[in-house]
């Protein structure tokens, strides 16, 4: 179990709710979020008004998205759409480079059908004449492989045998092809279990270009890496300028939507009153919203982001209740009440817990009703079951840690898949995106169980891996790391952490397999992309520096919510030119 005695790097963005936490030796269990500790000054908070219900006090500065801007924005979308359909891009590699740039800029949600058509056309051409790949450069073949596999098109990994010498290893002369090696490294991130050649490709290319690719596209949030890509992309083919202009305008549209949603979350959270009732619990609506903001990048998915954030909020709060506010008997009562899902069950709960229980039922029932109004079915039974599973997992861990008897690592990890909160979040996400209705009941929750499992394991291991680094300094750890070390006497913390890293790598391959399988049906692609984004967000949430801060997460939030550097030279949005 983690015991934190230092200050947190992530306080609440609501200054009225800051709480002072004592070094009380409270037990902290790995969960959907990283360490839950006391409030500390976080520079990003200075950007947020003390009254977050007023979005104009954020970066909007009194501006609205003007009609002129919207007209120009819509025209840019159509210009890029025409580019995708243009006969001028019949050259396969150039059209694939355009698709790649669109995806890296995070504006691909505008062009899903066009991208599908382009990739399918080139995939059909490529599979008809496989021998043609003999003449492809390393860059071009790697790009084809990555884009086709991302889209769910079957493309064999052994195609890279063309770049091996007689000794069965990648040819030494490739070390001079930096551009090709960078794309090879990117392609290798989509490997599946058993594809040893992609493991070899990743190792070979990383030796040369590893430092240049700290954030490979497949495992990164596109909105986070887009700015650098916009700056680095050279105007070679003529379409880069138009695409860059669209990306910058789209960035503003997304930023505006996120700020307005964030203000609504602040208001909802304040009105809920749980921060006042549970003063030791985390109070971080900004961080909770960040999960949803990263997962659902399409600005039009405002309602889904808001409702998903509410479910994430309760994962945090219930987690804290189990850790900080209850006796074993009370935890069992709360779990039983959640399973009953009946307002009458409030009578058996302690006074303070009644508020949380009622808020959970109110919020989840409301989400179910909204899904019914939008898609014609109410998934409340599935949502209730997800919350019951979460509480069961929390209760199991509370018993383990309360007794001081840690389980074997596999048993811990199996339960940790549920206690991570990923299952609750992804079940809500599945229905909020209307997948059940869009696919005509073709896809059910059972069809995404393996995907959910992989995301949950990646989250749990990253959480435990990052926590263990800090917790070794404090002396106590209830993570997978400690379970593994207890199970393997003589192993060091370094060996245990290396084992966890290998497990995360293996789980990414399983996640790739599930996404590859599901992406063959376009109607579920929004869910697979959102699930991938959750997995991509995990390292940002758990990458602590030596001061136990989360600098990468801070950078992401600043960049996505508050940085308006891209807008300074836009003729409509430039603040210097008025509002």
UniProtKB/TrEMBL annotation:
RNA-binding keyword on record: no
Terpene synthase N-terminal domain segment(s): 65-214
Entry's transmembrane regions: none
UniProt keyword annotations, A-Z: Lyase, Magnesium, Metal-binding
Keyword Magnesium assigned: yes
Essential cofactor(s): Mg(2+)
GO molecular function: lyase activity; metal ion binding
InterPro entries in the cross-refs: Isoprenoid_synthase_dom_sf, Terpene_cyclase-like_1_C, Terpene_synth_N, Terpene_synth_N_sf, Terpene_synthase-like, Terpene_synthase_metal-bd, Terpenoid_cyclase/PrenylTrfase
Residue ranges of domain Terpene synthase metal-binding in the record: 270-509
The protein's name: S-(+)-linalool synthase
